[in-house]
Amino acid sequence: MSLIVQKYGGSSVQDAESIKRVARRIVDTKKAGNQVVVVVSAMGDTTDDLLDLAADISSHPPLREMDILLSSGERMSMALLAMAIHELGETAQSFTGSQAGMITDAIHGKARIIEVSPKRVQAAVDEGHVGIVAGFQGMSRESKDITTMGRGGSDTTAVALAAALNADVCEIYTDVDGVFTADPRVVRTARKIDTISSEDMLEMAAAGTKVLHLRSVEYARRFGVKLHVRSSFSEKEGTWVIPDESDKVTIKEGEPLEQPIISGIAHDSSEGKLTITGVPDVPGKAAEIFNRIAEASINIDMIVQDVSMETQTTNISFTLPGADGEKAQRILLENKESIGFQNLDFVPQVGKVSLVGGGMRNHPGVSARFFTALRDAGINIGLISTSEIRVSVITDVELLDKAVQAIHTAFELDSDEEAKVYAGTGR
Ligand code: ADP
Ligand code: ASP
Ligand code: MG
């Protein structure tokens, strides 16, 4: 008998009808002779609605209360889903993150998993029930408080449970047919990828491809969990994320062996750009700036430092989550004297577009083609950053979709068919 972990995202359980549809799918999987553990997200845009509600009440809500609030979205859907399964004549038991043994650190809103001991879930499954677990939440070992793991974290709950329960596969059910060469909401002719290496998937997720939570890909890679991303609205085979030992690429007949292999294009519009001007060009200034930022638990992404001017000063720009911009500026201003800079300039929202593919490693032409596509589309480039298998640039946020489309076409990734988006608002 196989044990299957299935995760259903918000748009798959957005209303009562959807919950019933998902329940049928779960019951079918069980009836086919499998044990099933389900991880469920909050219904539709519930998490965003809860965030809006909190913002109407407080501009700086206590993070402990925020996590209790946000974790309630997933609790609603898990109980409703269990009821829907009972309606179909099967039994199910739902568990909150803490009941399911998801033990995390105490960082509210960004909690990391320390231990997973899903004893109660295992017992429920052994007794013949479907086990249902609320996504993206846990309990801090230290404070015993409820924690959440960050937006999109239910994918990581699913993978962590799959690892702890030694599941045969972790299926991530969403509102598109799998991982595509670009976001199908932006590029209608994006192509579904049948298999992607976990290395490329990691870069895509890190660069903003939100169909999988970055940490879920890292976790799956570390524990060898087989990931299958697919639609809850169709029976189609989705995308398999394959671990490294099977990172081989299948070359179709007639295809040149040395063709640069691009997996896809990721984009992100959640970052802002902070520029610090007139920083003294002496050793230790970057260390001071980035230590201060790190102490505030702010993740930075791209960094660029200009060459020093005759004035012996330089400018440092970096990108960071737009929501952290205010905090970063406050911290830097508090340390203005000791750092000795002149001014701060903050752009709250910029666009980031990234080209990802393990095959670009030995292909110098890839960046040139990428920049040419942007030039031909009349798109100006802000910052640039690269890894061995990725090129990213910052653009005007208004031009981001155009940039993604231009690059997708330049790398001949367009499919003849239109990609299907079954539900969701893309929020
Ligand atoms: P869920 O609620 O199921 O967790 P998400 O909204 O988190 O779903 O992720 C699914 C969405 O990810 C899709 O609707 C799509 O718009 C977006 N997306 C972005 N890039 C890609 C990509 N390369 N392939 C597939 N989906 C993508
Ligand atoms: N409901 C949470 C969110 O919207 C977690 C998740 O769906 O993965 O971010
Ligand atoms: Mg998601």
Automatic annotation (TrEMBL):
Catalytic activity: L-aspartate + ATP = 4-phospho-L-aspartate + ADP
Pfam families assigned: AA_kinase, ACT_9
UniProt keywords, alphabetically: Amino-acid biosynthesis, ATP-binding, Diaminopimelate biosynthesis, Kinase, Lysine biosynthesis, Nucleotide-binding, Transferase
Matches recorded under PROSITE patterns: ACT, ASPARTOKINASE
Pathway where it operates: Amino-acid biosynthesis; L-threonine biosynthesis; L-threonine from L-aspartate: step 1/5; Amino-acid biosynthesis; L-methionine biosynthesis via de novo pathway; L-homoserine from L-aspartate: step 1/3; Amino-acid biosynthesis; L-lysine biosynthesis via DAP pathway; (S)-tetrahydrodipicolinate from L-aspartate: step 1/4
GO biological processes: diaminopimelate biosynthetic process; homoserine biosynthetic process; lysine biosynthetic process via diaminopimelate; threonine biosynthetic process
Gene Ontology cellular component terms for the protein in this record: cytosol
Domain ACT span(s) in chain numbering: 274-349, 355-427
InterPro entries assigned: AceGlu_kinase-like_sf, ACT-like_dom_sf, ACT_Aspartokinase, ACT_dom, AKii-LysC-BS, Asp/Glu/Uridylate_kinase, Asp_kin_monofn, Asp_kinase
Protein EC: 2.7.2.4
Residues the record lists as binding substrate: T47, E74
MF-aspect GO terms: aspartate kinase activity; ATP binding
Coiled coil: none
Job description of the protein: Catalyzes the phosphorylation of the beta-carboxyl group of aspartic acid with ATP to yield 4-phospho-L-aspartate, which is involved in the branched biosynthetic pathway leading to the biosynthesis of amino acids lysine, threonine, isoleucine and methionine.
NCBIfam families: asp_kin_monofn, asp_kinases, PRK06635.1-1, PRK06635.1-2, PRK06635.1-4
Record-stated family: Belongs to the aspartokinase family.
PANTHER family with a match to the protein in the record: ASPARTATE KINASE (PTHR21499), ASPARTOKINASE (PTHR21499:SF3)
Name of the protein this chain belongs to: Aspartokinase
